[in-house]
Amino acid sequence: MEKYLSQLNEAQLAPTIQIDGPMIIIAGAGSGKTRVLTFRIAYLMSKGVDAFNILALTFTNKAAKEMKGRIADIVGDGEAKNLWMGTFHSVFAKILRFEGHHLGFPSNFTIYDTQDSQKLMGSIIKEMGLDKDIYKTKQVYSRISSYKNSLVTVKAYYKNPELMEADAMARRPRMGEIYKEYVERCFKAGAMDFDDLLLRTNELLTRFPAVLAQYQNRFRYILVDEYQDTNHSQYLIVRALADRFQNICVVGDDAQSIYAFRGANISNILNFQKDYDGVNMYRLEQNYRSTKCIVGAANSVIEHNKTKLDKIVWTANDEGEKVKVHRALTDGDEGRYVASTIWETKMNEQLHNSDFAVLYRTNAQSRAIEDALRKRDIPYRIYGGLSFYQRKEIKDLTAYLRLILNPSDEEALKRVINYPARGIGQTTVDRLIVAANGYGKTIFEVLKNLDSIDININGGTKNKLRDFVTLIESYQVMNQTANAFDLAEHVTKTSGLIRELNKDATPEGVVKMDNVQELLNGIKDFVEGQLELADAGDSLAEFLEDIALATDLDGDKGDPDHVALMTIHLAKGLEFGHVFIVGLEEDLFPSGMSMNTRSELEEERRLFYVALTRAEKQAYLTYTLSRYRWGKLIDAEPSRFIEEIDEEFVDIVTPLREQRNPMLDQSIFGDIEPNRIRFAKPKTAKILRKESKKKPEKFQISTPKKMKPLADTEEVSGSFNTKLEVGNTVNHDRFGRGEVMTIEGTGADAKAEIKFLNGDTKKLLLRFAKLEIL
Ligand code: ATP
Ligand code: MG
Question: What is catalysed by this protein (predicted)?
Answer without folding.
Answer: ATP + H2O = ADP + phosphate + H(+); Couples ATP hydrolysis with the unwinding of duplex DNA by translocating in the 3'-5' direction
